[in-house]
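Interim report, section 4.2 (structural modelling).
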Amino acid sequence: MNILVCISNVPDTTTRIKYSADMKEVDYSGVQWIINPWDELALTRAIELKEANPALVQKITVITAGRADVEATLRKALACGADDAIRVDAASGDSLYTASQLANAVKGDAYDVILCGIESSDYNNSAVGGMMAELLDYNSVSAVSSLNLDGNTIKVTREIDGGKQNIEVAGPVVLIVQKGIAINPRIPSMRGIMTARTKPLKVVPATDVIPASRVVSYEAPPAKSACKMIAPDHIEELVNLLHNEARVI
Amino acid sequence: MSVLVYIENWNGKFKKSTYELVSYGKRIAAGLGGELSIISIGNVDETELKKLGAYGAGKVLSANTDMALDDKAYAALIAEVANKSNASVVVMANNSTGKALAPRVAVKLNAGLVSGVNGLPLSYQPFVVSKKAFSGKSLLQAEITSGKKVITLSQNTAGVEEFPGDVTVEPVDVSAVSGSVKVLSSDVQTGTILLTEAEIVVSGGRGMRGPENWKPLEELAEVLGAATACSRPVSDEGWRPHHEHVGQTGKVIAPNLYFALGISGAIQHLAGVSSSKVIVAVNKDAEAPIFTAADYGIVGDLQEILPKMTEAFRKFKANA
Ligand SMILES: Cc1cc2nc3c(=O)[nH]c(=O)nc-3n(C[C@H](O)[C@H](O)[C@H](O)COP(=O)(O)OP(=O)(O)OC[C@H]3O[C@@H](n4cnc5c(N)ncnc54)[C@H](O)[C@@H]3O)c2cc1C
Ligand SMILES: Nc1ncnc2c1ncn2[C@@H]1O[C@H](COP(=O)(O)O)[C@@H](O)[C@H]1O
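Predicted structure of the assembly:
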């Protein structure tokens, strides 16, 4: 069984977002880049499964669509325990563009499981995984919170609104993962960092794809008005404000 | 220029968010000068389907099937109905089902997708929508440039509107539809208020000090008819179940009223709750960042304040 993990490179979650003067672009100067938190957990689970089933899981490949500066992220994934890496040499585009680049790069390769995160913490579009599945004509299961292998049978738990389902699905399948898939993200060991340097990293050219959407402009969220403080011994004042002023009770 | 809205059901019933989606679709159809159709997949009876008429449904296409959510099969069905009804815009909820289906439908229709849209499009020609990005730290306007468009709506950002009118219900042929994922078992929450649907949410953080102190929080929630939630460390510690965790890595909610009790207000927490209409914070630390996000605040010790709050709301409810 071969597992592909899709890795998106995002600004550290605590980054303050700055913009270009015309508000048409994000100013990424000084930003610290990290592996998208969901992708880090997806990779962690893939490594755990390989360690627990060495005879079954042969190879873990990581893939990202991006320019050369994202290779550091792929090296980190290799240091964590992935076996090889692919970078699709594509500029950033919308979800359809990115998903097409990834799907075109792996079409015909024999991955049994493709793992994606439920969303990238930058554009929060929750789209690339499902789009890849459709482009490759694979099954997909979204909102996966646990993944186990029973021989070649893939068993997952999917979160649905107000509950969960335990599901069995045959590969090849795209699993779109969320909270629960792994608990603590793997961090690279010293030995991992050394061996990562010699692991294969293949660069493939981008394909011609036309994006279907674009960002027109950015805006800072509206500032909240000051918080009204209520004295702890005047709780009835809170009740009154919520009823008469905010009108929410 | 017609619009297709996909709606899901919970044991054959719709929820407030369903009506929000339908009336949202109605307003987009009006903006485009087209018709609205609804596609419902699952076992829903005619009486329930007819309720959609009050929100502008017009035509409801009902795919009456027992098949559980299967991303590939459902998406194929929705795309087929979209093509047949000549929909140029397909709308879904930005919840776990919408997130599973919208990307697949978008590829089938060769459409651009923007998910988590806030409210109505800002313009129809070009088609521009607004959404949050960077987990709530930024807002952006996106144009969908393709002929067909798919959007998912962030809950509680458009509101429910009534458009009384006639509704026709037509069955969709599902004989050719078959799924390939096998549901072994499912565990669906019943009775309690669904966190993502709740109008009021009472949420506790590490400042609650331990699972044994949750009783008063639950009492407050009960008095208010609210759902309960928690911060991430609280669910990580096992004080509360995981499905209650809100924030960047948990659920994203947008109730009318959110109580943050003993929650410091970390950016990752706010990412999940900052769309709430009104936030009330109680924290013993006057400098806690939650007060910059809150509308109403009380500085003090929850051990004392929580029971007093419950009492005050109980009195209010009794006189209401
Ligand atoms: C990648 C990433 C993702 C994350 N995702 C999430 C997420 O989705 N959701 C989330 O919540 N967090 C998330 N976090 C964690 C987040 O950064 C914070 O650590 C977390 O939100 C803090 O939880 P808390 O407010 O309950 O606890 P604390 O930060 O410990 O705050 C406790 C608060 O309670 C107050 N307090 C203590 N005792 C009392 C008392 N007796 N009465 C009144 N007040 C009292 C304190 O003054 C303090 O402000 C994430 C972190 C990372 C790095
Ligand atoms: N540029 C990219 N390269 C590789 N994988 C990506 C890329 N962008 C998104 N993904 C994958 O798709 C998931 C969802 O991202 P998104 O649809 O952008 O919210 C991420 O968690 C990644 O697994």
